Amino acid sequence: MAAHLEQALAKLKTTGVRMTPQRYAILSYLLDSMTHPTADDIYKSLESKFPNMSVATVYNNLKVFIESGLVRELTYGDNSSRFDADMTDHYHAVCEVCGKISDFEYPPLSDIESTAARQTGFQVGGYRLEIYGVCPDCSVTTKH
Predict the structure, then answer these.
(1) Where does Zn(2+) bind (predicted)?
(2) Domains detected in the chain
(3) Rounded-to-integer distance, Cα 20 and Cα 4, Å
């Protein structure tokens, strides 16, 4: 993940975003995390290192990262956005029991935007795909 962090820092530099210790910590946490954390998760993980940091500070910095194209916000209708620093083309499987989100890739979908544009005449700005079900951990605990 160190290479990803270096790339992210270089990208921020070109967009004129000043790197503060808090921003560095938030970005590092996101790049290291595979759990698609909420802003609260990030805040709770970093509050011991940054006692003066608030949840609002975390949100504001996440907004900067989103605007800079380093982080994507995942909203699934449960009123708590999750954040993902993996900007590669990938999709998400969401557990309907615990809310866990797992990444997966499906290369045949890579031309979906051009196909949609061709068939509809739309200028496609993006798309998302989520799969819903029960994760392995929850399926073990819900079986009787």
Answers:
(1) 95, 98, 135, 138
(2) 2-75 (1.10.10.10), 91-142 (3.30.1490.190)
(3) 18
Query: What are the pLDDT digits (tens) for 17-73?
Result: 888 899 999 999 999 998 999 999 999 999 999 999 999 999 999 999 999 989 999
Which residues carry a binding-site annotation? 95, 98, 135, 138
> Residue positions in the annotated binding site for Zn(2+)?
95, 98, 135, 138
